[in-house]
Amino acid sequence: MPILTAIVLAAFVGYGAAWYTGSIEGNFALLLFLATVVTGLYWLADRFIFLPRRRAAAQALTEQRARRRAELAAQGITKVDDENLDTARERLLAQPWWLDWTAGLFPVILIVFLLRSFVVEPFKIPSGSMIPTLLIGDLILVNKFTYGLRLPVVNTQVTQGNPIQRGDVVVFRYPPKPSVDYIKRVIGLPGDEVSYLNKRLTINGKEVPQTAVSDFFDESTMEYFKQFNEQLGDVHHNIIVDTRRAAFIGNPDQFQYRDQCRYSIEGVTCKVPEGHYFMMGDNRDNSLDSRYWGFVPNGNIVGKAFFVWMNFGNLGRIGPFK
């Protein structure tokens, strides 16, 4: 078992190293699932096989010491220079290194797996596509049960939750590359007709209310941008617009249901298919979103983002957002 365990641990370390160096494309959900299964098997083996053996060995040592002392006492010898019995028992009952690094870690790994899979999952904002709502470096929490529980790794929905609403900030698997997680705002629901023409948003023929507010200074680019307060359903949020950029959507991908979108020099109009969503970033001119790569299937939804729990460069960022 020590040799087998060393091979298993080396495989995990090798996978992590290859992922870190970019040699392979890692999947943390799969890695955590496998770690939970492997350590769980070791935990079960320890509980029902190895621990009873260690306890039997400790009990045998206790009985052996008792018989030896009884024999010596019968010979009139009362002082015995033996190793402390409690210390010897502790050594026999202790997990060997190969169980300490597997079965011993199982409870912690299991808790992390359950919390991350079914309660909340942490993410880090890597880009400025959601400025001004979310800034680069924000560490956020994503609710994993609001839209219904999903099985880890395969992401299959198993319970009904609240329906996704326009204006929700959602983490999802990037359709062209599902191993990558994206975060955007829900603009269009299944059946909606979404138009973004001349940098104004229209849903089902009605222009989305928009009010100009003070310009936004983006510290990541050291530039000022026009800022507006937009209302999607009951959600009020701010967006920024780069007036120097054209409204034209350049080089959109050839995605599924591409025929549901009409591109022009003014922008794009799309009819959202059933079971799909249209996503956009709040940084409207600096966001690679549904305008470029298409619709997000319901099966790609990960959860609803709702809280910034840390930004090491700006502690004032901590708190909920919409």
UniProtKB/TrEMBL annotation:
Q: Which species?
A: Ottowia pentelensis
Family annotation (Pfam families): Peptidase_S26
Q: Which reaction does it catalyse?
A: Cleavage of hydrophobic, N-terminal signal or leader sequences from secreted and periplasmic proteins
Predominant location: membrane
Q: Kindly list the residue ranges recorded as spanning the membrane.
A: 28-45, 98-119
Gene from which the chain derives: lepB
Keywords for the protein's UniProt record, in alphabetical order: Hydrolase, Membrane, Protease, Transmembrane, Transmembrane helix
Q: What EC class is this?
A: hydrolase
NCBIfam families attached here?
sigpep_I_bact (TIGR02227)
Question: Know the name of this protein?
Answer: Signal peptidase I
* EC number(s) from the headed UniProt entry: 3.4.21.89
